[in-house]
């Protein structure tokens, strides 16, 4: 009978938190989880929200129905599909209008994304500077956050925001967050609203 030991598979290696975290994530999370990375240009709550949405960890009707908390998993906004993170944040009618406006504002070809994972890959695939990729990524995270907030306002406060109001929130929050959290303090509102960065 052998004794229990505490050792790494390779005894010549030292403890490294990053490697342990990576091993745990590889075992527990879907393969697409690596598309997400924290953005320093948005608050932690936005990073955490998007990460949770990516792994189906937000409280949508579908998730609540799965736990027998609500009887109906249908989207309260459109009533045509189950309210999953991908549906409410990307594919619901109001979300589609918001994304169409965001892509137009950022001068990106309109892209019909089906999943949050696909959306988060877009900035890295564009032929723009690395700073612009970071800005676009932050805008995408902010957009997901604002769409979710509008959804919650509709459900919990009976306030329905139209696409124009949501886009206004996205532009103003993304501007404030990127201007004061990033190294580009020279951003000007006049150029930002036209996305001349």
Automatic annotation (TrEMBL):
InterPro entries: RVT-Znf
Domain Reverse transcriptase zinc-binding residue range list: 40-99
Name recorded for this polypeptide: Reverse transcriptase zinc-binding domain-containing protein
Lineage: Eukaryota, Viridiplantae, Streptophyta, Embryophyta, Tracheophyta
């Amino acid at each position: 009978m052998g004794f229990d030991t505490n050792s790494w598979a390779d005894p010549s290696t030292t403890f490294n938190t990053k490697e342990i975290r990576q091993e745990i994530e590889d075992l527990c999370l879907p393969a697409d989880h690596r598309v997400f990375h924290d953005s320093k240009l948005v608050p932690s709550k936005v990073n955490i929200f998007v990460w949770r949405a990516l792994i189906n960890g937000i409280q949508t009707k579908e998730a609540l129905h799965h736990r027998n908390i609500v009887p109906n998993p249908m989207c309260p906004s459109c009533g045509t599909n189950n309210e999953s993170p991908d549906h409410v944040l990307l594919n619901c009618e109001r979300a589609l209008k918001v994304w169409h406006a965001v892509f137009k504002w950022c001068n990106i070809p309109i892209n019909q994304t089906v999943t949050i994972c696909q959306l988060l890959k877009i900035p890295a695939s564009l032929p723009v500077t690395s700073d612009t990729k970071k800005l676009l990524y932050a805008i995408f995270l902010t957009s997901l956050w604002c769409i979710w907030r509008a959804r919650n306002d509709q459900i919990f406060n009976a306030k329905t925001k139209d696409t124009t109001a949501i886009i206004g929130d996205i532009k103003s929050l993304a501007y404030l967050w990127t201007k004061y959290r990033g190294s580009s303090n020279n951003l000007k509102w006049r150029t930002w609203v036209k996305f001349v960065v």
